[in-house]
UniProtKB/TrEMBL annotation:
It comes from Xanthomonas fragariae. This is Transposase. It holds the Pfam family Zn_ribbon_IS1595. Transmembrane segments: none annotated. SMART domains: DDE_Tnp_IS1595 (SM01126). InterPro entries: Tnp_ISXO2-like, Transposase_Zn_ribbon. Residues 142-279 form the ISXO2-like transposase domain.
């Protein structure tokens, strides 16, 4: 019986350590050449963002720009990208990208600003540009095979574990919009909440993740995440029909929001303390 080794996280690999060291030692010219290579696939030929001509354009010495040989438009390696009209050097941009990528669980803005030698607002703006690019370039083709769906609530008031409160009848139905409150002017009473917590709840959002499982030990192949107001049947079905291919096997927890997935997919509900059941 052979032993199956799990795939190592890339951040733990030798290649990740070597690449980080190489990026930190780049000169400004080398950093610009890396941006050009990543954008156009060449360090000597460029694509004009105005007319689209791909060839060796005229270099503007001292400006780190090119002038198009056909239309005369001037451009750089970051023109019409998320870093258009940048003020940071190419070395700083690569450092910022590397710092963003290596933080598997995120980075605080204050920490990022200190490490990169920039203002907190600068780190915030550029991290926002990276996130915007990731969203705009996300592959939205439907997932297939074994697909996991789950949701996590974020924001609102902090959860207090082991807290016992006596709730009115049907309070949960009122909380999640399945039943109107007895007094519309004071909905928090029927929901078994204080007015302050009811208002905090309005800021709460759920992130529903859809994950396509890879081969055994290989981890996930693709993951999509969507921000919704609630983990309810309407949102779950809309996401599943749009982003999961028919015939796939869908795994979820026992939340009633996932009960109707069996109408379109082979659906299994995982009981956290028991064996899976088929819906």
């Amino acid at each position: 019986m052979g032993v199956h080794m799990a795939k190592k996280n890339f951040l733990h690999s030798k290649e990740a350590h070597n690449y980080a060291g190489i990026c930190r030692d780049l000169t400004e010219d080398q950093a610009e050449a890396l941006f050009a290579q990543l954008r156009w696939g060449s360090e000597t030929e460029q694509a004009c963002p105005d007319c689209g001509t791909f060839r060796r354009h005229y270099r503007r010495n001292g400006k780190r720009r090119w002038r198009c040989a056909d239309c005369g438009h001037e451009f750089s390696a970051t023109s019409r990208t998320a870093f258009h009209a940048r003020k940071l050097s190419y070395r700083r941009l690569i450092g910022l990208l590397l710092f963003f990528e290596s933080g598997a669980k995120g980075r605080s803005l204050a920490e990022s600003a200190r490490e990169l030698g920039v203002q907190i607002k600068t780190a915030q703006i550029n991290f926002g540009k990276i996130r915007e690019t990731l969203v705009n370039s996300m592959d939205l083709t439907p997932l297939q095979g074994i697909v996991h769906m789950d949701g996590i609530y974020l924001g609102g008031k902090p959860r207090r574990p082991n807290r016992r409160t006596k709730m009115p009848k049907d309070a949960l139905k009122v909380r999640y919009g399945k039943k109107p409150p007895n007094d519309p002017s004071k909905p928090w009473v029927s929901a078994g909440m204080t007015r302050r917590n009811w208002r905090k709840r309005m800021k709460k959002r759920v992130v529903i993740s859809i994950c396509q499982t890879g081969d055994k030990g290989a981890g996930s192949e693709r993951v999509m995440a969507f921000v919704c107001r609630a983990e309810n049947e309407a949102n779950v079905i809309a996401l599943a029909q749009r982003f999961i291919q028919r015939g796939s096997l869908v795994m979820s927890d026992e939340s009633p929001a996932y009960n109707r997935l069996g109408s379109w997919f082979e659906h299994y509900s995982v009981q956290h303390s028991d064996t899976p059941r088929v819906s």
